[in-house]
Amino acid sequence: MYSPTIILEALVNGLMLGAVYALIALGLTLIYGVLHIVNFAHGALLTVSMYLVWIGCEYFGLDPYVAILFVTPAMFAIGYFLQRLVIGPASRGSDNGILLVTLGLSIVIQNLLLAGFNSDTRTIVTDYAFGVIPLGPLLLSQPRVIGLAVSVVTAGLLWLVLNRTDIGKAIRAVAKEKLGASLVGIDVAHVYAMTFAIGTACLAIAGGLLMPSFYVSPTTGAAFVLVAFTIVVLGGMGSIPGALIGGLLIGVVEAASSLFLGDSLGQIGIFLIFILVLLFKPTGLFGAR
């Protein structure tokens, strides 16, 4: 049996990792809340973000956290133009069309990455990758502490954008009533693209936070986006507070499962929660009927 200190330490580290999971889920739930579709390209775009951070470190000597400052605007632009020039026109306004287009994008991006980088895994070597920060009797992972802090700041900035800016008000208006928003002069196509871009920019930040302690390969994003889907369902589709709380909860559950069942079975608890939520509360913790 593990000592209380080891258990508490594992749960706190899991909570901090859950904050990064929440950041990935934030982009997913924001896109769903406005466009009302599930973005199947989310995992592939996360992989692109992680590769861009790796390139910044490998070829330009950037620290992964500094690389976030350059990768985020790049991914924002990629997200905007993907929605405006590919997803929107190709789907022809059909929700089913958008689903198929994002699924096709996911396959294309993954195969392009496979062609460009092969199936080899890439990692970033940093001085602090295995660093710890003592907190009383607890030893907390330094990258996860940084990940928690950056995720909280990012969530706060996203809240300010959605509630205190004109584009945020437009996003909320389109999410509430698309036809009414267009009748008062809001460019719905632009709002869709901006929403997709913001969701993609969240992936750039998450990718930079993950790289010091994880590897990247062409299929890496799929594993993280499965967890993100679980968080979105747990918190409620389209609910930003639900994504935040759901991410923290899933991080703790994964840490507890890994501690007691082993790392190879660590995600059993996550998908057990996923099944239970679908069975007993399909709208999630904060989802509307």
TrEMBL record:
GO biological process, one term: amino acid transport
Keywords per UniProt: Amino-acid transport, Cell membrane, Membrane, Transmembrane, Transmembrane helix, Transport
TM spans (from-to): 6-24, 31-53, 65-86, 98-117, 145-162, 183-209, 215-235, 268-288
Pfam families xref list: BPD_transp_2 (PF02653)
InterPro entries listed in its UniProt record: ABC_transp_permease, BCAA_transport_permease
Top-level taxon of the source organism: Bacteria
Protein localization: Cell membrane
Membrane topology of the entry: Multi-pass membrane protein
GO CC aspect terms: plasma membrane
Example GO molecular function: transmembrane transporter activity
Family per record: Belongs to the binding-protein-dependent transport system permease family. LivHM subfamily.
The protein's name in its UniProt record: Amino acid/amide ABC transporter membrane protein 1 (HAAT family)
